[in-house]
Amino acid sequence: MLSRLFVPDTINYMIAGYVVVVVMTFGYIGSLILRWRRLQGEYQRFETLRKDQD
Amino acid sequence: MIKKPRLLSVLDVLSGMMILAAAGLVFFYAPVEQMMGLVQKVFYFHVATAWVGMLGFIVAAVAGIFYLAKRTEQWDITGFAAVEISLIFFLTAIILGSIWAKPAWNTWWTWEPRLTTAAIVELIYAAYLLLRQGVDDPERRARFSAIYAIFGSISIPLTFVSIRFLRTIHPVVIGTAETAGKGGFNMDSPMKLTFFFSLAAFTVFFVDLLWHRIRLGKLQAEVEKLRIDTYSNGM
Asked: CA–CA separation, A19 vs A24, rounded Å?
């Protein structure tokens, strides 16, 4: 009971930690999506160019 | 167009659900640790991200061995993908550790064995990316990267054992009762369940991301070949 009264208030650190997890994870997933879309665009462009050359 | 495999879509959903479930366990099931308060809940994802980081570096070393044995582009792409993902997770683990350290040790950073070796590992693999950028010839780049990843992986066990054999303030969580005495804290059953479920969730998430990143690497290689074909035919 007494120890429950003295649990330190560290909620801000916990929130900061999980904000870091969310930002890093979604940031990386976002970078994967952007790079995929850019490469698919390039892939289609080169495919069209190659067909035109043929 | 490169079609997305059905199994990868299943893995996307599974990993997303497992990460959400792990977060649910962390916030609503695991009890609040009495000495540190709510910041201790960072521990579950701190260890899970560090584990996945180390796992990826080991995958990169194994891919390096396979590349040197078989000389196929597939293994180079796999190694590169694993290092990139692991750098993100390992950096997350380091930042989470720093956030946890502030209320626990009253400092954001201290040059003790675990933190120092973790920072060295992160720098070693950041240099791997620089190495890849510095070599133009794809075959040489793949060979150098494979050798670098194999030698770089030596730093992984050093980081893991650093808190077991050297004087440190970093808690030893995984180990015997003896190691639990080294600044660790006793995990009760809900904490253990949350901890091991988080490890499993991040492992599945890592596999999912690795598969996506390998597909991206293959597409990149395809585009590069098309670019060379197009310009060499056009000349």
From this structure: 8
Q: Which of B85, B102, B227 sits opposite A46 (nearest CB)?
A: B227
A26/B contact by beta carbon, under 8 A: no
The answer to whether B222 and B32 are in contact (CB under 8 A) is no
Q: Minimal Cα distance from A50: which residue of B?
A: B230
Q: What predicted TM-score, i.e. pTM, was given to this entire model?
A: 0.90
**Average pLDDT, whole number, for chain B?**
90
Task: Give ipTM to 2 decimals.
Answer: 0.89
Spatial distance between the Cα atoms of B25 and B30, rounded to a whole number of angstroms: 6
B48: nearest CA partner in chain A: A21
Q: Decide if B233 and A42 are in contact by the 8 Å CB cutoff.
A: no
Res. B227: pLDDT tops 90: no
